[in-house]
Specification:
Layout: H1 7-11, H2 24-43, H3 54-60, H4 71-84, H5 88-105, E1 114-115, E2 124-125, H6 126-147, H7 157-175, H8 177-185
Antiparallel strand pairs: 1-2
Helix pairs in contact: 2-4, 2-5, 2-6, 6-7, 7-8
Length: 197
């Protein structure tokens, strides 16, 4: 999350980001939110239903494959804009405070502990929920870096390997395994996109 403290982010806070309809500050706040949501989900109600797998979570998610004017994406952008209005110092402080609390308590949680993200009606295992946050962080770190002409930070392999595996599965489900195979191996036969999200 060191990119959030980059002076280029602060300097361009109110400028448009690489994501349509979001300023750099809104995008930074959305990135920060991925960390802040972890203790929110840990503290929230879970319900009695069995958790769904991470692939099923994305199959049920209303924003997947929708354009920026879709209601789900408009709500995400509105929340990001509202949180970004607090400014870079408040955003950084939120992430630092949250990380300090998570370092102490997260390791003690069992991996099969259930959590329910507050924006859905189903639960996930804690490991699967954390994978969804890693995916969001990996994608939006790149979005933010591109937005301020900064190099995209290298993420640890413990993040990139499961995120890339998940994105590959989601892309194959959305576009078919052949499209993903061709895109990864045969440029001349690759489809225009295999976007997973």
């Amino acid at each position: 999350m060191s990119l959030l403290a980059d002076p280029r982010v602060r300097a361009r806070w109110d400028e448009p980001s690489a994501l349509a309809g979001m300023s750099v500050g809104a995008l930074a706040a959305h990135l920060a939110r991925q960390v802040v949501l972890v203790p929110v989900a840990l503290a929230g109600p879970v319900g009695d239903a069995e958790p769904v797998g991470v692939d099923e979570h994305y199959a049920r998610s209303a924003w997947i494959g929708r354009d920026v004017e879709d209601e789900a994406n408009v709500a995400i952008a509105r929340t990001a804009r509202d949180e970004g209005a607090a400014g870079p110092d408040a955003t950084l402080a939120r992430v630092a405070d949250t990380l300090a609390g998570l370092r102490a308590g997260l390791a003690a949680e069992p991996a099969d502990r259930r959590v329910r993200p507050p924006w859905v009606t189903w639960s996930l295992t804690l490991d699967d929920f954390l994978l969804t946050r890693m995916l969001e962080i990996a994608v939006h770190v790149d979005d933010l870096a591109v937005s301020v002409d900064a190099p995209t930070p290298e993420l640890p392999v413990e993040v990139t390997e499961p995120v890339l595996a998940l994105l590959t599965r989601l892309a194959a489900r959305r576009h078919g395994a052949v499209a993903v195979l061709r895109t990864l191996s045969r440029r001349e036969r690759a489809p225009e996109t295999i976007s997973a999200l």
